[in-house]
Model the fold of this input.
Amino acid sequence: MKLNNLVEKLAAFEPSGAAFVSLYLNAEANQNGRDAYHTWLKNAFRDEAENYEKESEEESLFAETTERINSFLESESNESANGIAVFASVGGDFFETIQFDVAFPENNLFVLDRPHIFPLVRLIDQNPKYCVLWADTNKADIYVFGGENTINLETGAQSKVETIKNEVTQRSKAGGWSQARFQRRIENFHLQHAKETVAEVEKLMRDGKIEHLVLCGDETTIIPLLREQFSKIIEENVVSTLNLSQYASEDEIHEKSTAAMNIENAVRDQEKVERMFNAAKSAAGLGALGVEKTLEALSNGQVEELLISSDFGVLQYSPKKVKKVMKNYAPGDDNSSTDELPETKDAGQIADELLVRAINSAAQIVFIEDESLLKQAGGIGAVLRYNINATANG
Done:
């Protein structure tokens, strides 16, 4: 299942009163090269099972669900996956899994009446799909990391998507006009190689809807030649240039490009938060600050971009006021997926509700890693498409 489709399916889940398991695993190998989550998971399932009456139907159904999850992990999970998420309804048919080449920060088991999607949506936002182009004057390797590309772990697909090779050229020792003609031939060859490489990258980014590009290679030779061939749109999507030699491994390219993307994300966060505060202060009032105001705007379908702290534990709000906001909107008119209200004292469930309403109203979701950036807004805010009051008064 496509990653975006899975998120939408989880957001649309209608609680039935039965338990629902959301499992997030850090599947990175330990010092012995083995997954380290198995003991933790065994204990987590045992502790949760103690919440059910012995030999009850609920206990039996939970045992069946955990057995199915364990079976998947033992027989179907990919050994190279670093992050694994499993979503299953206890006693129901809902069972979905997703595997990533990036890890969840920690192992977590949530058993609620609905899916807990916050860790999944956060991982998606913080690890966007991006393209890496490594090139010299006669060869180019194209990679895609992150984003929906991570689910290719299930099919064993590699990060490298294409290698472009051309005839290796050498300098001639001929002199005079002969050397000049040969030099022009080399320059024309390099130009043609650059054009072919750029055409492949632009097609890949366009077809794959990839918005970020990292360039790798010699910054004094091939990089300038490549950039001369980029369209304006692709040039604007260049995140960074890395001076890496032909001997750089895929792991090194991945590591260096990920660091560049992290810097880009930090800069992005600051710009977006500044935009949000400016929108809230503007005469048009196109910004919402705080859980209550943001929840109301999401329920109205006003939100263009939701900005939320990557740690929902820092959200500051009044459970009483949040409950009032949710009750003020009739089911079906509030961009929620269910008539059952979440537990307002549980910050995790409130964070999920905010995400669900953002997904259902096609709002962009941005997780802010530096919690200090959103501190004045109580950990959350939004840029609005329109202001209801301004429209009414106009």
In short: Residues 149-157, 168-175 have pLDDT under 50 and may be disordered. The domain at 269-393 is CATH 3.30.1330.30 (60s Ribosomal Protein L30; Chain: A;). The radius of gyration is 25 Å.
